[in-house]
Structure formats: C-alpha cells, structure tokens
C-alpha cells in the first residue's frame, strides 16, 4: 500500500499549530523567556523536522514530535541556539550604541531637539542601507550553503 502524498503546505501548517502555543508560553516569562526560547528554538525545530519526516512516512504529527529533538543531538542544537543568541545580541549592540550616541537617548527620554531627531533619522536610514547592502552582497553566498 502506498503512503499518501502530503503537500508541503499541510506539513508547515501542522508544524506551526503544534509549536505555536508552547513557544508563546515560553516567551511570556519576562527576561528569562526570550533567552530560554532562543536556546530551545533549534531543539524544538529539530523535533518538528522529525515530525515532518513522520508525516512524510504517513504517520500523524503529535506534540511528542515537538520534544523529540531533546532525544537526538540536543547539546549541539542548544549550542546552535546559543550562537544565534550571541549573534543577535552582538547585532543589537552594534545597532543601538550608535543610535544612542546620535540623539537616540534624548529621543527616548522626550528631550530631543529637532537637530537630534534629524541626526537620529539619518542614522536609521544609513543603518537600513548598510543592512540592505550586506544582504545583497552576502545573501547569495548564505543561500548556497
């Protein structure tokens, strides 16, 4: 007997339904939630991938698949999450330190002059352009890997 063909859209929709509520519950916890969520996201996605493989074989996707990533390569997946968080924090520092120096602090406290607001806007535009240039330059190389 042939296994039924399952559309990729159905697999993605089912996976999102399974991961949606637990991920939101973790993110609600102040300060610790986003950190734990970032560390565990690759592990949970590994479980979703195992669940998608089970669906490809004709089995049902269950909540147990979400946590199956803890049984296989959990340490390596948590390391991927830690590297992701470190990169994210590094990018946030690179973006926010210049913003604060160019009037961002005054803008956030409500004491900004028009000149400070103008320089802050200029920094935001330049940061967006730099990000766009990096995306165009590095994007194809990242997609090939």
Describe this structure in words.
The chain is mainly alpha-helical and 145 residues long. The protein folds into 2 domains: 1-72, no CATH class; 89-145. The chain contains 5 helices and no strands. α4 (74-109) packs antiparallel against α5 (114-144). The radius of gyration is 21 Å and the shape is elongated. The relative contact order is 0.08.
Keywords:
81% helix, 145 residues, mainly alpha
What is the structure about, briefly put?
The chain is mostly helical and 145 residues long. It starts with 7 loop residues before the first helix and ends with a helix.
Summarize the SSE layout with pairings.
Layout: H1 8-28, H2 32-56, H3 63-66, H4 74-109, H5 114-144
Helix pairs in contact: 1-2, 2-4, 4-5
Uncertain residue segments: none
Beta content comes to under 5%
**Range of helix content:** over 70%
The sequence of SSEs as H and E is: HHHHH
Tally of alpha and pi helices: 5
Mean pLDDT: 75
Q: How many strands, what sense, and barrel or not for the largest sheet?
A: none
Radius of gyration (CA) equals: 21 Å
Number of E strands = 0
**Count of discrete structural domains:** 2
